[in-house]
Structure formats: C-alpha cells, structure tokens
Write a structure and sequence with these properties.
Chain A: Pfam families: Glyco_transf_34. The complex is a heterodimer. By secondary structure, chain A is α/β, with parallel strands linked by helices. Chain A has two domains: 34 residues; 237 residues, Alpha-Beta Complex (Spore Coat Polysaccharide Biosynthesis Protein SpsA, Chain A). In chain A, α4 packs antiparallel against α7. Chain A is globular, with a radius of gyration of 29 Å. Classes of the chains: A alpha/beta, B alpha/beta.
Chain lengths: 301, 436
C-alpha cells in the first residue's frame, strides 16, 4: 500500500522547502562568475585587438626598379619622390628590383605581380597597396590617396564603358558598389593601364595576382605581355570584373605630352605624371622627366 | 496552490459553477455544463464559487470509484513536483469552446495511467521508426530538414551521348542501375539529386569544349540550389556500395580528420609542395605552408587521387567565394585553346595544372584517401595492381566504387552488375537474412 510514496522522514523531498529556498541562492555566484569571465574576455579583446602593431601602415606603395637603360640620377630621383610622398602621408614604401622576380625569363614588366604579392605578405596588416611604375613623378604630393581617390570613388567609377577601348563588347558593370571594389585601374587609349594599380589585400587579391601571373599567360606571346593578359582575364572572368573599378586616367595616372596612347594628358595640379613608352628609343624619357621634375610641388617634411 | 497542479483542467477557484453531476472533465463533454458555462462567461455575475472546495475536486478528480488509492497517491506525488502556473495564459474568454477542448485533450493525454504511458511509448516508437528508421517521404523530409538538404549529388548521365556514341541495351541498363542507386541514396538521406545530361549538343563555340563541361554543370547546379552547401560530383560509372552511411557521418562531421592538406602524403604527380621557397619566396605564410591554414573551414574542394593523379570521377566542392573563383578560372579559354589536345583528361588535367601553378588554389584544396569515396575495381589503374590504397576491399566495406575507364575495353555493365550484387549481399537486412 505504500510502494508509491516518497519517504516521509526526508524533509528534503518536501516541495515547499526545496523549490522556494534552495534553488535560488547557489546560482548567484555562478552568475557573478560568468559575468566576471565575460568582462575579462571583453577587456582582453579590447586591449589585444587583432594583433596589429601600432606602426603598421594602412597603405603601402610598391616600386619595382628596372635600372637597365636609366641613369643612377634618374633612379635616385624616383626613389626620393616616393619616399617624400610616403613619409608625408604615413605610408609604407616597398622597393624591389625587377631582377628579384625573374619569372622564368618572362619580360621585366611581369615583375610587378609577384612584387605586389610580396609586399602583401611583408606588410600583413596593411589594407591597401598602390603600385606605381618607376616612369612616374608624384607631382602634387599634398593629395592623399584617401581623400583624393578612396573618398571620391563612388563618383569616380566609370560604369558601363568598354573594358578595352574603343569597342570591347565586355563593359564594366553598372551597379558594383564602391565598397565591394578590390582593385582600381585606369585606361589609356588602347587598353587597361598597368602602370598605376591600387589593390586591396585579401584572398581576392591573391587569387587575382596568381591567376594573372599564371605561366600560361606569361608565355602566351601576348603582344603587350602583362597588359594583354590582364585584359584577357578581366574580360573572361566575371569574378575579376565585379571587383574592378575603372576611374579616369587623370585621377592617378596622367600621361606626359610625349607619352603614347594618352587618354588624359597632364595638366597643372594633377596628382601624378607618367612617361608612358619610356622603353622606346625615340622618346627621350629622362629629358622629359627632368623637365617635369623641376615643376613638381613639394611639401615640407 | 491546488489550482496550479499538474493536471488542473481549469484555472483554479474562479470557475463557473458546474451543473454536471460528475466533476470528471471527460464526462462533462456530453453534459449541458458547457452551455451554461458559456452563458456564465458572458455575464460576470454568473461567476460563482467553486462547487468543491477541496483540493481533489479542484483538480478535477472527485474521490470516485475509478481512482481508489493510486489516484490519491499520484496526486500527492504531484504536489511535490516543481510548480508553475500552467494556466496563467488562459483568460476566461479564451477558455470558451476551443480552450475547453484542448484542455480536455491535454487532460486525457497527461494523465499518468498505465494506458497513457503505454500509448505515449508506442507513439514515440512509431514516430522513431517512421521518421528515422523506415524510409518514406516523411523520413526523407526529416533528414533533409536536419542537414541533408545542404548536399547535392550531381550525376553525369549520358556522357558523350548523342553524337559521339550510340547507346545499346547495356548502356541503358548501366545508366538505369546507376541512377536508381543514387536516387535511393539521396532519398534515404534527404539529399538533392541532380541528374545532368552530358550529351554532346553543340552548345559551345568549340566542338571539344563539350567534354569540358563539368565546370559549367557545377556552376549551373549551384545556381539551381542556392541553399545547398556541398556538391558531390559523381560520374555515371560509380556505385554507392554502402547506402546506409550518410555523407555527414562518413566525411563532413569530421572533415578535418578524414582529409589531408599536404599532397606529399600521396603524390603520384610529384608536385613540388609546398611551393619551392627559392622561387616562391614572395608568397604569404599560408600559401607557403604545406597544410595551408589547416582548418576545416578553409576546405573548399575535396579531391581523391588515384595512381595517375587527381581523379574527378567523385569529388566535392563547397559553395564559397573560393569555389566561385576556381570554377571561373578553371574554364579559362587560353588554357583550353593551348592545351586541349595535350590534356587528355580534360578538366582533370586543367585542375592539376592550376593546382601546380596558382598557389592560392592550394590553400583551399584538401585531398581524401581514394577509397573513402572512389574505390577502383581491379581493371582500373593497371600500372599499380597491388596498391592497397586504390582498390575496392569488400572486407572494409568501401563506400563508393568508380569503374573508371570501363568504357575503354572493359565491360561496364558486367562490373556494375557484379558490384550491385555485392552491395545487395552486404546490406541485406536482418529480416531477409532470417527468412532464408
């Protein structure tokens, strides 16, 4: 008759004592402990950040020097110009030689690709990389990339234009938002310009650079080597075209009057001047360079 | 207190007076009490004190003949259960018609008689068998909802059919068997199955591009199933030998342990890995490492290797940015134009080439021992007939057989039929064993 009953002598089985008293109190220290752990964790996150050193630059400029055929004076001026600009804006400067990246015998223009990847692995915490050819002078160093290009990007992007002028059937997308852009380029009269490239670091950049540097393209006998290879992958691969912004050449890649294929010729006040076609013997590159070198603005450091 | 007990049918003391002779809720269903209660709800003046003031009556159990002592004891035990106000949400207005019915059903179902317990046990057993053990549309739905719909099996049917070959009776039979096998497997585990017709139809600018379609078909399937995560490519000449093993339990629940990132574990192509430090010193640390970042989350393509290198007869890709890029660059026309004569294994050679030459691909690629998803029959890989890593072993119950290359001088139909028989024998249910 008594088999279903709880033992009477044990008062712990009484409902009123156990439910109302003993349930509440032991939990309070637990909450306190959990709260404490959470606060410590948040504080730790706050002070540690993502491991980024305080002096890591947000932007790094990449310069690949090709000394063959150029005087030391010319090279020194180029380096001094970049140093001055990088220092003024707190950018990093990554200088290498074309001979550092032989690329199994590909022409020296291809060296820019592993150089950018090298800069990205060297400056792990840097978001933006600007590759600028050595045949260029930063004429207006007071302009920073942030204010002159990144902030203006939504207005600068040229939408729905042929990727390769004048009549490529592949056109840039109409609706790619500026935040999704990973690479900024410009065009000259005949095609994409590889002398001035802005790239955001990340897995996309690795993919893009590796695909561009593929040996099959390097040795395909494209007429203009790396430039044609770039035009090819941009036009054939939507994963690349969606991340690309084409902006006016004037923004960061104006050509000198003697340059070939110029779309936007340099006028006073432009950010950068480039002497495209330096490799051609009939253009005396250094002479024109020195003319403009005198006209460049400087900023006091 | 008494109004809050476990099976209290109504909200405690403030009940309209019941005119039913018996307070048991079940008997009230046929009594005129309901009508009078509805009237009472309408006018607040109708609320009266409960008829019974004892605990027992408020619980709905009068000391009647049906519950002599067990009922009493159960009630006492219930008072020591944790109490909470089950009827807090019930206002008198809600508690009119439907509330009453639900309450009554609840009351019946939560009684703790032996019959109810047996009923619940039987019901849960039937539900378990019906939803998890037996195979029916409901169980397929349950499995699909609990993760199966993340997987899509892409089966390439009719490869090169139409123009290049004319199908005979055996080819039809092979195709029928292979499709039935995948269909049953996909239904069992709630996976999607997409059968893709790979026949030659002059869809592309270059005639041989047809046979490079794999990439295009995967892209297309990814668009068709926007919520799926993993896509399993299977050639037609494959057979799933162990349909009772799910992909989750076989591979994806412990992806990190069943795959390997360092190709040097088994490297028939002799690919230099990691990329040689003297040539590729400019790469980042992850690309230079032999195992990438070594996290399961960065695995985007899972490839088995046979004696001759990568084998794309049975492989997995995951939907991700990485895969989108890979599929995009894989289909590059320059590679196709230059190499389609030389790369006789088509996109397989192309992938090997890309893996070798574009370092970013290595950090998203994982390999899987061949016999996990792609065992060979003795006829394939005749160069290495004794390699234990390649060929199907009945004793180990390998998951999938791929009769690779059977169309080149071997008997596809014979191989497929014999493996089907092996699979049927191995997976016989205890019932059919016992019946013999």
């Amino acid at each position: 008759m008594h088999f279903a009953l709880p033992t009477r002598g044990n008062y712990r089985s009484s409902p009123f004592l156990t439910t109302s008293v003993s349930r509440k109190y032991p939990r309070r220290p637990l909450y306190a402990l959990l709260g404490f752990v959470a606060i410590v964790f948040l504080f730790y996150r706050l002070i540690s950040g993502d491991g980024r050193p305080a002096d890591a630059p947000h932007t790094v400029m990449v310069l690949v020097l090709n000394r063959t055929g150029f005087s030391n004076d010319y090279i020194n001026k180029v380096v001094a110009n970049r140093q001055e600009y990088a220092q003024a804006h707190g950018y990093g400067l990554f200088i290498k030689e074309t001979t550092d990246y032989p690329g199994n015998g590909a022409s020296s223009g291809w060296a820019r690709i592993p150089a950018i990847r090298h800069a990205m692995s060297t400056y792990k915490y840097t978001e933006t990389f600007w590759y600028l050819d050595q045949d260029a002078i930063i004429m207006n160093p007071s302009l920073s990339l942030e204010s002159h290009i990144f902030a203006e990007l939504p207005n600068l992007i040229r939408r729905d234009i042929p990727v390769v002028p004048p009549d490529s059937i592949i056109r840039t997308y109409r609706h790619v938002p500026a935040e999704k852009v990973q690479m900024i380029l410009s065009q000259d009269k005949t095609g994409l310009q590889v002398g001035s490239i802005i790239l955001k670091a990340g897995t996309w950049a690795q993919y893009f650079l590796d695909a561009w540097y593929d040996p099959m393209f390097r040795f395909y006998n494209f007429q203009k080597g790396e430039q044609n290879a770039l035009e090819h992958i941009v036009q054939w691969h939507p994963t690349i075209l969606t991340k690309l912004a084409l902006i006016p050449q004037k923004s960061f890649n104006s050509f000198s009057p003697k340059s070939i294929d110029s779309e936007d010729t340099y006028t006073e006040g432009d950010f950068v001047i480039r002497f495209n076609g330096c490799w051609m013997p009939e253009i005396d590159c250094e002479k024109e360079f020195n003319e403009f070198w005198k006209r460049r603005k400087t900023i006091g450091v | 207190m008494s109004g809050n007990t476990f099976w209290a049918p109504e909200g405690g003391g403030s009940r309209p007076e019941s005119t039913s002779p018996s307070p048991l809720p079940i008997s009230r269903a046929n009594s005129p009490a309901r009508i009078s209660r509805n009237d009472a709800t309408a006018s607040p003046t109708g609320w009266a004190a409960p008829r019974y003031s004892t605990t027992a009556s408020a619980n709905g159990y009068a000391p009647s003949n049906t519950r002599k002592f067990i009922g009493k004891h159960l009630r006492k035990i219930s008072t020591s259960l944790p109490t909470y106000n089950r009827s807090a949400g019930w206002t008198p207005a809600q508690n009119s018609r439907f509330g009453g019915i639900f309450h009554r059903i609840k009351t019946i179902l939560f009684r703790k008689t032996r019959a109810t317990i047996v009923f619940w046990a039987l019901l849960s057993f039937c539900a378990f068998v019906g939803l998890y053990v037996h195979q029916n549309p409901a169980s397929t739905w349950v499995k699909s909802a609990s993760g199966g719909s993340k997987f899509v099996i892409i089966l390439a049917a009719n490869q090169g059919g139409g123009v290049m070959t004319w199908k005979g009776a055996k080819e039809w039979a092979v195709e029928r068997d292979s499709i039935a096998n995948k269909k049953a497997y996909a239904e069992k585990w709630g996976y999607h199955l997409e059968i893709k017709d790979m026949s030659t139809k002059k869809r592309y600018a270059h005639e041989w591009r047809e046979s490079w379609e794999k990439v295009d078909v995967i892209k297309q399937t990814m668009r068709q199933y926007p919520k799926a995560e993993w896509f399993w490519w299977l050639d037609l000449h494959t057979f799933i030998m162990e349909p009772s093993i799910s992909l989750q339990s076989h591979i994806f629940n412990h992806l990190q342990n069943v795959t390997y990132r360092d190709i040097n574990v088994y490297n028939p192509l002799n690919i230099t890995h990691p990329p040689s430090p003297s040539d590729f010193y400019y790469l980042d640390e992850t690309s230079k490492s032999a195992v990438g970042d070594d996290k399961a989350g960065s695995i985007n393509i899972i490839v088995p290797q046979d004696c001759g290198g990568f084998n794309l007869g049975s492989f997995f890709v995951r939907r991700s940015d990485f895969t989108e890029r890979l599929l995009d660059i894989w289909w590059d026309p320059v590679g196709y134009e230059q190499k389609h004569m030389e790369w006789e294994h088509k996109e397989q050679d192309a992938l090997e080439y890309l893996y070798t030459n574009q370092p970013w691909i290595r950090s998203g690629t994982a390999f899987i021992p061949q016999r996990m998803i792609n065992s060979f029959p003795p006829g394939a890989c005749s160069e290495t007939p004794d390699d234990p890593r390649i060929f199907y072993q009945e004793a180990d119950r390998d998951f999938v057989v791929n009769m690779a290359g059977c169309e080149w001088g071997r008997d596809c139909w014979g191989e497929m039929a014999s493996y089907r028989k092996v699979s049927e024998r191995l997976n016989k249910s205890w019932w059919s064993r016992w019946r013999k």
